[in-house]
Amino acid sequence: MGKLCLHGYVSGRVQGVWFRGSTRQRARASQITGWARNLPDGRVEVLLCGEEAAVRALEAWLRRGPPAARVDRVQLEAVDWQDVADFTTG
């Protein structure tokens, strides 16, 4: 498998429930780079870059999120590779 970057949005109760921090923790453990940031409309925007299998596994986890979250919708699409040094939250 090759490398993959996904960009998109997670909707539901995903702010104030440690969604970004949990995503960062899982991403770093899987050597995925990118970021997760809160948007004013209540969604979380994400960029995930890494080995395809690891990125797909994190994508599946995003559909559940941490225990306090309620994920209603995940919209992700493949984008051109981006060289990002780490996984950050903002």
Strand content: 35-45%
Radius of gyration: 12 Å
Helix and strand string, N-terminal first?
A: EHEEHEE
Q: Separation of termini?
A: 30 Å
* Helix content bin: 10-25%
Annotation, overall tally of beta strands = 5
Note the main sheet. 5 strands, mixed
Shape, please?
A: globular
Decide which structural class fits the backbone: alpha+beta
Separate helix tally: 2
Widest beta sheet: strand line-up: 4-1-3-2-5
Q: List the uncertain runs.
A: none
Q: Let me know the average pLDDT.
A: 97
Give the secondary structure arrangement, pairings included.
Layout: E1 3-13, H1 19-29, E2 33-38, E3 44-51, H2 52-62, E4 70-79, E5 87-89
Parallel strand pairs: 2-5
Antiparallel strand pairs: 1-3, 1-4, 2-3
Structure description:
The chain has 2 helices and 5 strands. The chain is globular. β2 and β3 form a beta hairpin. The protein has a 5-stranded mixed sheet, covered by helices on one side. It is of the alpha+beta class. The mean pLDDT is 97.
What labels would you give this structure?
single chain; 90 residues; alpha+beta; 5-stranded mixed β-sheet
Give a nutshell description of this structure.
This protein is α+β, with helices and mostly antiparallel strands.
